[in-house]
Amino acid sequence: RANVFAITTGSKNLDTMLGGGIMTMSLTEVFGEFRCGKTQLSHTLCVTTQLSVEQGGCAKKVAYIDTEGTFRPERIKEIAERFDLDPEAALENVMYARALNSEHQMELAEQLSQELASGSYGLVVVDSIMANFRVDYSGRGELSERQQKLNIFLNKLCRISEEYNCAVFLTNQVQSDPGANSLFGPTSKPVGGHVLAHASATRIMLRKGRGDERVAKLQDSPDMPEGECVYVIKARGICD
Ligand code: GTP
Ligand code: MG
């Protein structure tokens, strides 16, 4: 895996747990309840990908697929300042697209292959992978069709990550199953079934800790042991 890059998350604890950061050439998935930092982590990676290899990046651009409308350009600029990058230039290096529904999300992946052929991209973010699919295939009999479409989308991303040596960072929601788990708090099972579980080489569970603190648990990794660590969310992005 000589030419795989590790992109720093902004948190040393998280990087250490991951063996350096978010890896190119494969899919990484973070999942967890609301406000655990999935979107903030996505924003931080938009900036750190642009750093030099010595600084923990790969000096490349970012493609960002936003399904929930939570991308904040101002946050990118704040994080850029932390890493001594020009805020405007850093923002310009993030190609942003809002996926309005699952069909549109699939089309965007198609367009992505063309855009990424330039070789100038190091990261693709999808925040969040399942939101559109869950809305568009919410009927009882629609699950297998949803999983088929999801599989096509993920295969495309897998191919892109390997062909253009970029990292793919997916955020995911957890199942809300209040009936079965009301006594024990929210469930921590990601949605997307085995199709998504199989596609994600690295799977990280996020949850809230005390105050600003968040806890990440590495559940699946091709070459790192299971582990847990704490990170915090600040205006300047993810840190320790
Ligand atoms: P959903 O998309 O709703 O599932 O949540 P998420 O996991 O994407 O959460 P997100 O990344 O949006 O994190 C939101 C949390 O980040 C908030 O609850 C805040 O605690 C924290 N946060 C956001 N901005 C700041 C900031 O400027 N300073 C600090 N200290 N915390 C912030
Ligand atoms: Mg979010």
From TrEMBL:
One of its GO terms (cellular component) is condensed nuclear chromosome. It comes from the Eukaryota. The keyword Amino-acid biosynthesis does not apply. This is Probable Meiotic recombination protein DMC1. Keywords: ATP-binding, Cell cycle, DNA-binding, Meiosis, Nucleotide-binding, Nucleus. GO terms for molecular function: ATP binding; ATP-dependent DNA damage sensor activity; ATPase inhibitor activity; DNA strand exchange activity; double-stranded DNA binding; single-stranded DNA binding. Belongs to the RecA family. DMC1 subfamily. Residues 3-174, 181-240 form the RecA family profile domain. One of its GO terms (biological process) is DNA recombinase assembly. The lineage of its organism: Eukaryota, Fungi, Dikarya, Ascomycota, Saccharomycotina. It is found in: Nucleus.
